[in-house]
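This section describes the prediction task in plain terms. A model, or a person checking by hand, is given the sequence of a single protein chain and must write out its three-dimensional structure as a string of tokens. No templates, partner chains or ligands are provided. The sample shown here is typical of the held-out split.
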Amino acid sequence: MKDKKTSSNKRFYIIGLVIITYLILFYFNKVKTIDSFTYAWGIFIEIIPILGLIYIFMVIFNFIPEKKLRAYMQKTSGFYQYLILSLLGMISHGPIYAWYPILSDLKTRGLTYGSIGAYLFSKGIKLTLIPLMIYYFGAKLTVLFSATLFSLSFIQAFLIDLFMNEKKSATPVE
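The expected answer:
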């Protein structure tokens, strides 16, 4: 309980530090400070829908019984975990850090670090941006780049699990 309270207090310190910094900068240069704040506010407004989506996913994951999810992850081989998470990484949108809480939650429910690595690595492939990439770089490079990145996500996942000495969760499912 103390760890969560300490973590919560640190968040308030960071927010307070940002506010104090803006106030100091505002004193020295009002125009640039307002421009900076406007830019930061725009980014915040832009990611609100993504954060809402992440929140919805987290709520949904809370309704998935931990025992069933763990049982599924235990039955699924590493390769299929890598495949599923790599595909999910390709189709997911938003900033990568916004997915950390979900991945952390899934880690506590039986996901391996390698599977998380596969997900994070394959987020470099943006299906929605492939047409734009084809326009600028051509279909050949786009296919080669995407296929290479997707393939390397499996190698990375395997190596992460190997170096982390991570095996399937041995926790019995009740």
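For orientation: Residues 169-174 have pLDDT under 50 and may be disordered.
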